Amino acid sequence: MTGSTTMRALAVTASNRAAAGVYEDRGGPLIVAALEKLGFAVDGPRVVPDGEPVREVLREAVAAGYDLVVTTGGTGISPTDRTPEVTRDVLDYEIPGIAEAIRAAGREKVPTAALSRGVAGVSGRTLVVNLPGSTGGVKDGLAVLALLAVHAVDQIRGGDHPNEKADDQRADRPHDHPNERTGDHSSDHRTKDHPNDSAMGRPS
């Protein structure tokens, strides 16, 4: 990670009924547990009603300098589902691929996952991701974030692209071919020294 190694995250549950105590929030704790396993220091879950309160908690989180905010709830097509709208109001730019990957993961199990309108993007230096309100939808979304969140936070912090760095090193030494350096065997094992040079390196 670039700079401080501490990654801070906030879990937010958007639900009128959970906020009123009608039923227990189950999605928020799932988010907390999953992000802690990824190495984040996680606060929450903050349970707020749908709509404007979500906008406010997102703004507070960005001002507080969280690296990642993950919300659950309010992403459907009912009249009270406004999480995508208020999230967009806070974002500087969207990352459509994250939201698309989350919907795709859900559709593999439940066709109605296509109705989720959750968005993802960046506000300031904070990555914000909307997950559905169901526990199944939360788990599917977290499985996607397990592959993307840490790398995304590193990039937002200004981290280098591993493959680009290795490419730059090769460009600086255009004639440094392994067969031309009989006394130096380190170049024969570039994938050991630069694991991300392989075809299986992390996506940038």
Question: Could you walk me through the main structural features you see in this protein, from its secondary elements to its overall organization?
Answer:
- The protein is α/β, with parallel strands linked by helices.
- Helix content is 41%, strand content 17%.
- A 6-stranded mixed beta sheet has the order 2-1-3-6-5-4, sandwiched between helices.
- Helix 2 runs parallel beside helix 6 and helix 3 runs parallel beside helix 4.
- The radius of gyration is 20 Å and the shape is globular.
- The C terminus is likely disordered.
Topology, please?
Blueprint: E1 7-14, H1 16-19, H2 27-37, E2 40-48, H3 52-63, E3 68-72, H4 83-90, E4 93-94, H5 96-107, E5 120-123, E6 126-131, H6 135-156, H7 162-172, H8 190-193
Parallel strand pairs: 1-2, 1-3, 3-6
Antiparallel strand pairs: 4-5, 5-6
- Tell me the span between the first and last alpha carbons: 14 Å
Shape: globular
Helix content: 40-55%
Strand order of the largest sheet: 2-1-3-6-5-4
Strand tally is 6
User: Biggest sheet, in brief?
Assistant: 6 strands, mixed
What is the structural class? Answer: alpha/beta
Mean pLDDT, rounded to whole units?
84
Tally of DSSP helical segments: 8
Give unreliable regions as ranges.
168-204
SSE arrangement, N to C: EHHEHEHEHEEHHH
Q: What percentage of the residues does DSSP assign to strands (E)?
A: 15-25%
Q: How big is the Rg? A: 20 Å
